[in-house]
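Hi all, posting the design record for the shared folder.

TITLE: backbone redesign
STEP: 1 of 1
STRUCTURE INPUT:
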């Protein structure tokens, strides 16, 4: 008999776990589920779906480089995709809100239906939306 496995949490290293957790709380409407001095777990409010995120403070944290890796610099190893309901206007509004909450818009934007941003610790993340099909 094999064990039952399920992915429960994505953990991101950060300059400051509490600062980064607070950013994603504001962005996603998540709540704190557990915290320690150098670690925070957040997730969707009870009764709603979604993936939990955890953040841990790393004294030697180095933010990744995106879109290209330069020799000797930390390469991007993962990013979060966050779906935006409502099409292009909602994507523009949520991008502006993310920036107001502390994100930074990436200079290079590869697609019309995706906005690449960096969180306060420099992790790339994408806001994306379904574009309307042909009429």
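Okay, here is what came back for every position:
SEQUENCE:
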């Amino acid at each position: 008999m094999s064990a039952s496995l399920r992915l429960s949490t994505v953990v991101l290293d950060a300059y400051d776990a509490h600062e980064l957790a607070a950013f994603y709380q504001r962005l996603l409407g998540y709540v704190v589920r557990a915290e320690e001095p150098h670690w925070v777990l957040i997730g969707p409010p009870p009764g709603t779906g979604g993936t939990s995120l955890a953040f841990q403070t790393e004294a030697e944290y180095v933010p990744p480089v995106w879109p290209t890796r330069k020799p000797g610099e930390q390469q991007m190893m993962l990013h979060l995709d966050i779906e935006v309901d409502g099409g292009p206007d909602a994507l523009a509004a949520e991008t502006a809100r993310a920036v107001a909450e502390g994100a930074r818009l990436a200079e290079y934007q590869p697609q019309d239906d995706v906005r690449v941003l960096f969180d306060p610790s420099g992790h790339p993340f994408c806001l994306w939306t379904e574009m309307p099909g042909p009429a």
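COMMENT: The helical segments are 17-28, 87-101.
Let me know if anyone wants the other runs.
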